[in-house]
Write a structure and sequence with these properties.
alpha/beta; TIM Barrel; nine-stranded parallel beta sheet; 11 helices; about 15% strand; binds zinc ion
């Protein structure tokens, strides 16, 4: 049976400097439709807050997902352009609205995981601090993680395991979709309870691919035949079509296709528990 785990990395919850940069970028390209959108969206409701929309979509299919929450703390560095979107774009974990939705999701069958911050893949204290802070909101242990930007090195699994995570879902591609090094099923890096559940399809690499739907259907066949898990990551902020054309449509299309194949949907944490207790 085809198995599917839906997930959402929560990189951003507010649009702020993007109003200005996207406005300017499209103005320079003379794309006035987009210029108008980014200008007017400033006065409308927050376009990067899509939890209600995601919940609505998933409830309509009777499926639940995992939300990976980021607690980024990287300091602003004026002289490093790459730092800007990490530092200026970040949100505060204890934002009242966010705390409320995290608690609601956790209590209603969705899973909360940790989205390890940009530098935490190689910093045990930092990742541990983030885990504890996010756990203080849900008031119980969190077992799963995925690193921001899919940052990973040989030390990352050690760090994650040492501070008490039971599974990671960072193993995947950032520029294309499909399996990384042909790893299609969850695997045990230490031959014990710690599991890597590979990320198979991420939003932007998928949306920007040629022949994406045909390639996706082939991938589904492969996963079904090899008893893998289709792990999907659609970022929380990408569900407004005006801002991210096709993203919401394809998220729904993917769920519909999997439902057509009678797929078994569960959160990553639920799959973890089943795999470890040999029920899968
Ligand atoms: Zn991220």
């Amino acid at each position: 049976m085809l198995k599917v785990a839906l997930s959402h990395d929560v990189d951003r919850i507010n649009k702020h400097y993007q109003y200005f940069t996207y406005f300017l970028k499209n103005l320079l390209k003379a794309d006035f439709k987009k210029v108008k959108y980014h200008f007017s969206s400033f006065f409308k409701e927050e376009p990067y807050w899509n939890f209600p929309e995601i919940i609505k979509i998933e409830e309509s299919f009777n499926v639940k997902s995992t939300f990976f929450i980021l607690d980024e703390s990287i300091p602003f560095n004026l002289f490093d352009k790459n730092n800007w979107q990490l530092s200026i774009g970040r949100y505060h974990l204890f934002n009242e609205k966010l705390v409320e939705i995290i608690k609601w999701l956790d209590k209603n069958g969705w899973e909360i995981g940790v989205h390890g911050s940009y530098n935490s893949f190689n910093n045990k204290e930092l990742l541990n601090k983030e885990k504890k802070r996010i756990e203080s909101i849900v008031e119980h242990e969190i077992i799963g993680t995925r690193q921001h930007y899919l940052n990973w090195n040989q030390n990352t699994w050690n760090i994650q395991k040492e501070i008490g995570f039971k599974y990671d879902s960072t193993w995947g591609h950032t520029t294309t979709f499909g399996t990384k090094e042909d790893k299609i099923t969850p695997f045990k890096p230490f031959n014990d309870y710690f599991l890597e559940i590979p990320l198979i399809v991420m939003d932007t690499p998928f949306i920007s691919s040629e022949n994406k739907w045909d390639r996706f259907l082939e991938l589904l066949d492969l996963i079904e035949q090899n008893d893998g898990i289709l792990v999907v990551n659609w970022h929380q902020r990408v569900f407004r079509e005006e801002e991210f054309p096709e993203y919401r449509t394809f998220y729904i299309k993917i769920i519909e296709e999997c439902k057509k194949r009678n797929a078994h949907f569960a959160t990553l944490g639920e799959f973890y528990n089943k795999i470890i207790s040999n029920q899968l």
